[in-house]
Amino acid sequence: MPASLADVARLAGVSIATASRALNGSSHPVSPTARGRIMRAADEIGYSPSRLAQALVTGRSPVIGVIVGDVVDPFFAEVTRGVEDVAREGRYMTIICDSDRRTGAEIDYLNLLRDYHAAGIVFAGGGFGEDPRAADLQHALDEVVEAGARVVSVAQRPFGGALVAVDNEHAARDMTDHLIELGHRRIGYVRGIPGLTTSEARQRGFLAAMATAGLQADLQYEGNFRYESGQSAGLQFLAKGLPDAILAANDESGIGVLMALRQAGVGVPEQVSVAGIGGTRVSQLVDLTTVSVALYETGAEAARRIIDRTVWDPDRRTILPHRILVRGTTARRPA
Amino acid sequence: MPASLADVARLAGVSIATASRALNGSSHPVSPTARGRIMRAADEIGYSPSRLAQALVTGRSPVIGVIVGDVVDPFFAEVTRGVEDVAREGRYMTIICDSDRRTGAEIDYLNLLRDYHAAGIVFAGGGFGEDPRAADLQHALDEVVEAGARVVSVAQRPFGGALVAVDNEHAARDMTDHLIELGHRRIGYVRGIPGLTTSEARQRGFLAAMATAGLQADLQYEGNFRYESGQSAGLQFLAKGLPDAILAANDESGIGVLMALRQAGVGVPEQVSVAGIGGTRVSQLVDLTTVSVALYETGAEAARRIIDRTVWDPDRRTILPHRILVRGTTARRPA
DNA sequence: TGGAACGGGGATAGCGTTTGCCATAGACTG
DNA sequence: CAGTCTATGGCAAACGCTATCCCCGTTCCA
User: Fold this and answer.
1) What is the spatial distance, in angstroms and rounded to an integer, between the CA atom of A246 and the C1' atom of D4?
2) Does residue B275 come out as left (phi exceeding 0), alpha (psi in the -120 to 50 range) or beta?
3) In angstroms, rounded to a whole number, what is the distance separating the alpha carbons of residues A250 and A225?
4) Rounded to the nearest 5°, which phi and psi values hold at A159?
């Protein structure tokens, strides 16, 4: 039974209404005397207003929800960081929800955040294209919007609305082009989680670059964005003959490939070049060449849009730039 | 304006009370006919109850809050995962709050979770010993408990209560002992964030092991758990003369040391052994020797305690085991 | 046959806030 | 001095639920 507004009012000898007005910056005037007594009473009993009750009546709450596909994935962590830093500055609280890439959980969290009357929701994490519950998701999303929340997507998702994202396809294409420019002809690819829109965009980029250069894209292995999947892809490349270079759909699986190759005694980048996509912090840890895709900035921009007091264009779409980070795992193809 | 219970009731032609009873498993009987109409009405208009209103009136809500010190830190990410998996199973929702290691934010989130009437709170992240706002934190914590939430700490914190944790001091001691057993005598140490209880426990462990072995622990550098700090510590070791082995307060800074050394052409583990503490996934990525400290299990156990319908001992303290993971960055000291 | 027991349902009091509306009392304005 | 502001404050109605209390019929048993 934490202190309630009624307790404060009683202690200060005023009505609940007056106490409320003194504590939140109401335009209704309150005498300095009363205000003083209220403030003193409030912190004497350690009062802090119930956000819940506030949200219920005002239909607004200073929280931003971030729905991510996987908390441990540095991709999302970085986006989240961006959201948080901006939110904090604007005195918003950020709550992170991990959907574990399950649409059902996304819907649940969306509903929860709607109930909480979150000011905005950053919807991160690419979904699956052929989602059977897409309609339900869309419904939940609509309701959130209807309830007044600003929703901004951070990954390409089939539904419209505000978007702040990176161009995964383009990023993959650029990285592939770079590999090609280094003289590599046979380039292998380690795919991401099947069906995920992010995975598919990256794969399209890879394929497009290869096609444009007139190269065969026949060296592809399944993957799931995880280290282990990169590792086993690496082993398979090892078994079936090494290509000139290998591109992985994300950094973590790229590191898997790298480690598998090096452990087998293959020189990277002397014999084979390896690259990832994402520019996450782990790529720096192992000096992996990758494409940096402004993740932090993506989150920050999304939060800025939500917080911004003036403009809110529910259909504005922003694509943030990416940049190739040439590091120690790629090199010109040996002559 | 999402559908409310009143809408459902109206559409089904029953009272709000009956609708409520049909939709949540009330003990009050409802005829199959009415129930059917209500259910049909509910999903026709896509009704989902307001957790907020529910929480307000029942004082209970199926959510578990996790307060972490830093989302991007794999340490916390792993704990969070454990919480989530168990929570999901029990049909609870998990919301993650990143305090950015600021006590003020911890207090804010604690209050928020109290308002939401969270069923439980997993308080992760070691605090700073000499915290000026410790009293406020304690107050917020007390209120949360008073409001009925089960609070379990995951890191050693000055305050009492339920605890599920790992013994950081012991883990550091064991790792140091292991290094000593490998024949190393001059062992360097890269510290964690100054003042953090976790940092201090690990350092104590290191010092204890060195003292017991009668070795000088004079090779220590400041650090902050980040990659860069490990890197610069590595550079300093390089400049001032290399020890036999280097232990870092966590994996990430250990990797920093490792990379700095290797880039300078120093053979690890041939010339110098390097180890970390934490057993996080990144350590696996670079094959770093480390101490695995059951992080996932810590979170899972904490969540289990919260969810468990029967027992709740608000003072039970559990210490989970740790295990040395010998990998490729340590070796016997060359003779 | 009286009444207890039970199946089924409705009214309504909160939960802790904010806020629109009304009341009171000085202070001003002509 | 009547009329009008303005500063200050209280009352009470929501917000969307759950839970308590009450009511109305049946059925069943002594």
Assistant:
1) 83
2) beta
3) 6
4) -85, 160
Of residues 43 to 102 in chain B, which lie within 7 A of strand C by their beta carbon?
A: 53, 56-57
Q: What is the pLDDT of residues A263-298, one digit of tens each?
A: 999 999 999 999 999 999 889 989 999 999 999 999
| pLDDT tier at B328, thresholds 50, 70, 90 | very high
pTM here is 0.90
Which positions on strand C lie below 7 Å from a protein C-beta? 7-12, 14-21
pLDDT band at B135 (very low <50, low <70, confident <90, very high): confident
In single-letter form, the type of residue at position A132 comes to P
State the first-to-last Cα distance of chain B, in angstroms, to the nearest integer: 76
Q: Give the whole-angstrom CA distance, residue A124 versus residue A164.
A: 10
Average of per-residue pLDDT across B62-78:
91
Residue with tokens 């998701």: A137
Closest CA to B225 of B192, B257, B196, B194: B192
Dist CA A229 CA A257 (whole Å) = 8
Structure tokens at A214: 């007139």
Residue corresponding to tokens 């840890």: A285
Note the CA–C1' distance, A7 to C23, in angstroms.
Answer: 25
A32-42 tens-digit pLDDT: 999 999 999 99
The DSSP bridge partners found for residue A14 are none
CA distance B8 to B32: 16
Alpha-carbon distance of A11 to A46, in angstroms, equals: 12
> Among all chains, which residue has been given the structure tokens 């599920």?
B164
The rounded Cα A332 to chain-centroid distance in angstroms is: 33
The token pair at A61 is 């709450």
H-helix or E-strand containing A189?
A: strand A187-190
Find out whether B225 and B249 touch, Cβ atoms under 8 Å: yes
Which residue do the tokens 């200073």 mark?
A: A62
pLDDT of residue A128: 81
CA distances from B266 to A261, A286, B244, B261, B327 (A): 21, 16, 12, 5, 18
The answer to whether the Cβ–Cβ distance between A71 and B50 falls below 8 Å is: no
Residue of chain B whose alpha carbon sits nearest to that of A107: B48
For residue B283, what are the CA distances in angstroms to A175, B155, B171? 27, 21, 16
Do A203 and A191 touch, CB atoms closer than 8 A?
yes
Cα distances (Å, whole numbers) of residue B88 to A132, A192, B63, B300: 21, 25, 10, 11
Determine the distance in angstroms separating the CA of B94 from the nearest CA of chain A, rounded to an integer.
7
A282 vs A255: CA distance, rounded Å: 9
B108: left (phi over 0), alpha (psi -120 to 50) or beta: alpha
C-alpha dihedral sign at A256, A262, A267, A268: positive
Pairing relationship of beta strands B323-325 and B290-292 according to DSSP bridges: antiparallel
Q: Which residues contact B97 (CB under 8 A, 6 or more apart)?
A: A93, A94, A95, A96, B65, B66, B67, B68, B105, B109, B112, B113
